[in-house]
Design a protein that fits this description.
This protein is an alpha+beta fold and 294 residues long. Among the domains are: 6-77 and 280-284, Alpha-Beta Plaits (2-Layer Sandwich), CATH 3.30.70; 103-140 and 196-274, NADH Oxidase (3-Layer(aba) Sandwich), CATH 3.40.109. It has helices spanning 17-21, 50-54, 67-70, 83-89, 103-114, 133-154, 157-166, 169-193, 217-234, 245-251, 253-258; strands spanning 6-7, 27-29, 35-37, 60-61, 71-73, 126-130, 204-211, 238-241, 265-274, 282-284. Helix 5 crosses helix 9, helix 6 (133-154) crosses helix 8 and helix 6 (133-154) packs across helix 10 (245-251). The protein is globular and about 60 Å long. It starts with 5 loop residues before the first strand and ends in a 10-residue tail after the last strand.
């Protein structure tokens, strides 16, 4: 397996799709038009494989990934009729075209979510549908503001101790090791250029929430989100679950007002929706950490 981050200059066609699709802005272009990896942002690479999956000539190389062992060719841009065709071709989409999502497609997604299994009937989960980009853009300054304040808090011992005490270990280390290192680059880009690295320019958004005291709603909600992601893909839409959105709505009163979240409800899930800007040429293989047969 080849190692390192590089673009094969001999085969690269300079279509710049890899640059545009990289969610971490790890891939950049020089003034000469040459594509390169900004190694200062290497830690931000989440190994999503998008750049390698869209490159028609296999010119992009991500450290630790190989076209031969980690990817498989997609025979069609549509997910097909079979379940395994559907799940093997679905990807988290973070690049969208500027085209509104029709209400009837969103209604089909919601219908699919309503068929998801639940712990105890009836459904406890509620969905807020945001169908216009203007509302999302109105909310973005509050979202980035929350993470800017969080970054300041984590930069001093007292603030870090308080935050660690309030959060469970999983959330604390997710923020410490993933969210805040990414926000180091994302916040300035939003403040200086208005670049949206949270909702990624999505034209619609689904917020999943439930009464805090309702039984088994957390597990139900995560299953609902999974059904929503698969339904969106089956309908030809791009979608991604965005974990940065729910905590900001939970902690910022203005956001709860913008999205009309009932006071007794907690927001635990978010799906961004839109028409994909790019189609993937190949899928990526993933392995579980371990499989234990008993």
């Amino acid at each position: 397996m080849e190692t390192g981050f590089f673009v094969n200059k001999e085969t690269c066609q300079r279509c710049y799709t890899c640059v545009s699709i990289c969610p971490s802005k790890f891939i950049q272009t020089q003034e000469s038009g040459e594509i390169y990896f900004d190694l200062e942002k290497e830690r931000q690479c989440i190994k999503c494989g998008h750049c390698m999956a869209v490159c028609t000539v296999k010119a992009v190389q991500i450290n630790g990934l190989s076209y031969e062992s980690d990817f498989f060719e997609l025979t069609s841009n549509s997910p097909g009729n079979g379940f395994f065709d559907l799940i093997s071709s679905r990807r988290s989409i973070r690049s969208f075209i500027n085209k509104p999502v029709p209400r009837e497609l969103i209604e089909k997604i919601i219908e699919a979510v309503s068929m998801a299994p639940m712990g105890f009937p009836p459904h406890k989960v509620e969905i807020s549908v945001v169908q216009n980009r203007e509302t999302i853009e109105k909310a973005l300054p509050y979202m980035f503001g929350l993470y800017k304040d969080l970054e300041k808090g984590m930069n001093n011992v007292i603030g870090r101790t308080i935050i660690k005490h309030k959060l469970d270990s999983e959330r604390y280390y997710t923020i410490k090791n993933h969210v805040l290192p990414a926000m180091k680059y994302r916040i300035p880009l939003f403040e200086q250029k208005g670049e949206d690295s949270i909702t990624r320019g999505a034209q619609a958004m689904l917020l999943f929430h439930a009464d805090k005291e309702s039984e088994s709603h957390t597990e139900d909600l995560y299953i609902d989100v999974a059904y929503g992601l698969l339904a969106a893909h089956a309908l030809g839409l791009g979608a991604s679950a965005i974990s940065l959105v729910p905590p900001s709505i939970e902690r910022v009163k203005e956001l709860r007002k913008i999205f009309r979240i009932p006071n007794e409800n907690e927001v635990l899930g978010c799906i961004i929706l839109g028409y994909p800007k790019y189609r993937f040429k190949r899928g990526i293989k993933r392995e579980l950490k371990s499989i234990i047969w008993i």
